[in-house]
Design brief:
- By secondary structure, the protein is α/β, with parallel strands linked by helices.
- It has 2 domains: 8-250, Type I PLP-dependent aspartate aminotransferase-like (Major domain) (Aspartate Aminotransferase, domain 2, 3-Layer(aba) Sandwich), CATH 3.40.640; 253-381, Alpha-Beta Complex (Aspartate Aminotransferase, domain 1).
- It is 37% helix and 15% strand.
- It contains 15 helices and 12 strands.
- It has helices at residues 8-13, 51-54, 59-69, 80-89, 105-113, 130-136, 160-169, 182-185, 222-235, 240-250, 253-271, 291-297, 314-322, 343-347, 367-381, and strands at 73-77, 96-100, 121-125, 142-148, 173-177, 195-198, 213-217, 277-281, 305-310, 328-329, 339-342, 357-361.
- It has a 7-stranded mixed β-sheet, with helices on both faces. A 5-stranded mixed β-sheet has the order 8-9-12-11-10.
- Helix 5 links the parallel strand 2 and strand 3.
- Helix 11 (253-271) packs across helix 15 and helix 13 crosses helix 15 (367-381).
- It is globular.
Length: 383
């Protein structure tokens, strides 16, 4: 398939149009072998050595991701955390890195509790603020800026192109967690980022039945080689069946994200002026602080994630989540089913998340049904 001649929706739906050479099957085989035959002179001319990092089941999914993100290479991991931490583990002791104050909580905890053990110096700032970023950068010492946009769970927007320019002028790389945007809405590499990360558990797979992560690089650099070495030597790779599930999920990526975006926009607009809601956090609202930048770098919608802050506070927010019927009280996002959670309770002590906030992951159900369910939950919580 000539990816320059077809739209990304076609690339995803046909998974690059690959057909199994042996059977002519349109659905790829699952390669279960862990090891591969050496040539008679002890070489591996077929390029396969061991399934931990040379599994042919990875090839198609990685190639589809490269095409969607306009990257040079991709690498699949056993989880989003495995992918994200590999970016930091590929750095060197003493390197200074910058990360957002508000970001995916598990990765923030890892940076706080473990990154120092790798010899990294981690500084948390508001990465979306160009002035803060410029002040925090240490030319010659800062080697990585980590951004997340939209950032979970306040959905803060970072201008990727501007951030990449600032980071590069100081000699630093920019890595972007684009999990909530997915390649459907944002392609960070085309905006100047060096690495894009996905918790593939979420929108890429989209069915809440797989744990996976992925990285895509803008160029095959020495740093990227170290990232892949981390994957191979620490062993954070997924299995063959999981790679097959991920590829299957990506085939419907554009349909699912489009449906979620349209419903999330309707839900955000409905509750924006609601008498029981103090604030709706969603990049698609003109009132949202990051709306202008989001409109510039997000195509075809503003994502399926939003948060609402309940006027009466934490207890009312928790009670609202307790009274939903269609929304599922569960952690995660990006699946076909809509999820709701009181995020501060999940993150625990030290969370920067307001205690009146409910995080909503909008699925592909009818938007009117989802709105009606939240309405009845708010009403029951207030009585």
């Amino acid at each position: 398939m000539d990816t320059k001649k077809v739209k990304p929706e076609t690339i995803a739906a046909q998974a690059l149009g690959w057909v199994d050479e042996t059977t002519k099957a349109v659905s790829p085989p699952i390669h279960m072998s862990t090891t591969y035959i050496r040539d008679a002179d002890n070489q591996y001319r077929n390029g396969r050595v061991y399934a931990r990092d040379h599994n042919p089941s990875f090839d198609q999914a990685e190639s589809v991701l490269c095409a969607l993100e306009h990257g040079a290479q991709a690498a699949l991991f056993a989880s989003g955390m495995a992918a994200a931490t590999a970016v930091f583990q590929a750095l060197k002791p003493g390197d200074h890195v910058i990360a957002p104050k508000v970001m995916y909580w598990s990765l923030r905890n890892w940076l706080v509790n473990f990154a120092s053990q790798w010899g990294l110096q981690v500084e948390f700032i508001d990465v979306h603020d160009p002035l803060q970023l410029q002040r925090a950068l240490q030319p010659g010492k800062t080697h990585l800026v980590w951004a997340e946009t939209p950032a979970n769970p306040l959905w803060t927007i970072t201008d990727i192109a501007a951030t990449a320019d600032i980071a590069h002028k100081a000699g630093a790389l920019l890595a972007v967690d684009s999990t909530t945007a997915s390649p459907v809405l944002t392609r960070p590499l085309t905006l100047g980022a060096d690495i894009v990360m996905h918790s593939a558990t979420k929108y890429l797979n989209g069915h809440s039945d797989l744990i996976a992560g992925a990285l895509v690089t803008r160029e095959d650099s020495e740093y990227w080689k170290r990232v892949k070495m981390v994957r191979a030597q620490i062993g954070g790779t997924m299995g063959s069946f999981e790679a097959w599930l991920l590829l299957r999920g990506m085939r419907t990526l554009f349909l699912r994200v489009d449906a979620a975006c349209r419903s999330a926009q309707r839900i955000a607009e409905h509750f924006e002026s609601h008498t029981q809601i103090a604030e709706v956090l969603y990049p698609g609202l003109a009132s949202f602080a990051g709306h202008v930048v989001a409109a510039k770098q997000m195509r075809g919608g503003f994502g399926g994630m939003l948060s609402i802050r309940v006027k009466a506070g934490e207890a009312r927010a928790i009670a609202t989540a307790a009274n939903v019927e269609l929304w599922k009280r569960a952690t995660s996002l990006g699946g076909v089913e809509s999820l709701i959670e009181h995020r501060a309770s999940v993150e625990g002590a030290g969370t920067p998340v307001p205690f009146d906030l409910l995080r909503l992951s909008v699925g592909i159900e009818n938007a009117d049904d989802l709105i009606a369910d939240l309405e009845q939950a708010l009403k029951r919580a207030s009585t």
